[in-house]
Fold this protein.
Amino acid sequence: MQFQESKMSAACLEFFPFLNTIEWENHRNKFAAIGSGVLFFGSVWLMIDTSVAYSPTGHWSNVYFLLTLAGSIAFFMINAVSNHQVTGQAMDEGILGTKGARLWMMFAFFLAFSTLVASLWIMFANFVLVEGDIPNWPGLALFFHSFFIFISSLLYKFGRSEEMYG
Amino acid sequence: MCCRDNDDFSDSNSCSVFAALIGLALAGVVGLTLLLVGCALPEYGSWWPLFVVFFYILAPIPTAIARRFNYDAPTTTPCMEFAIFATTGIVVSAFALPAVLAHAGTIRWGACFFTNTASTIFFLAIVAYYYMNHEDGWNAAIY
């Protein structure tokens, strides 16, 4: 996983020469945390904005915030387990052990993908495949917010390297 | 005054500290003034933007807590990274709240612009304060 990440980042650095001026490796964890925070909270505020703008028109239901909740739970579950525990390199194994850590991680990704699929379903069922002229933006905002929360959890999980911890 | 005496080098550091403190205080006051102008101008007239002060107060707290836990830390710890994540969220919220209010029509877009400018100045002042206080000790403080 680490080797593939460094190959992708090397390719990004080739195409954007400006990026060579920033010292990446030492501060990689901070950049990953900042990017993840911007994506996560940006998507939450996008949902709030869409809810405020479209609730009066009757095309929105606040039940959709359950997707935000599910995405956030998936975020915390994915990041609750360190990479070392899942790959079996950790010193102490904790209550669940390596097998339990992998099962937890799998369930967390299961929840994250389910959130994505649910947002796509709602977008298509309520905002695309409906007769008549309705606003499409709420459905798009719903899908984008769930996608950005997923990307944010991936960035927080895999964008930080654990080599730097004491 | 401390700045006038060039032979005494022990005071030069304290002089620059005073200048930095006064500059930061000025920046903070300018930011708050812009925020109040955005509320108090007659054509805006709405006091909703003052809610971002809540985010100004919250912003330094996560990193302050994380610093307390790991003073002699290696380069970074999971606690500090989560604090950075939470701080980023608070800063994003401070910029997003006026935009959502303006989109909903509660405040005007001019007031949103004033408030976001004030937020920028204020958060830059907070970052400069951290630089000033931690440039000698803790490695890789924020950057």
Observations:
- The first helix of chain A runs from residue 2 to 15.
- Chain A has a mean pLDDT of 84.
- Chain A touches chain B through 24 residues (CB under 8 Å).
- Helices of chain A lie at 2-15, 28-54, 65-80, 83-86, 97-128, 137-158.
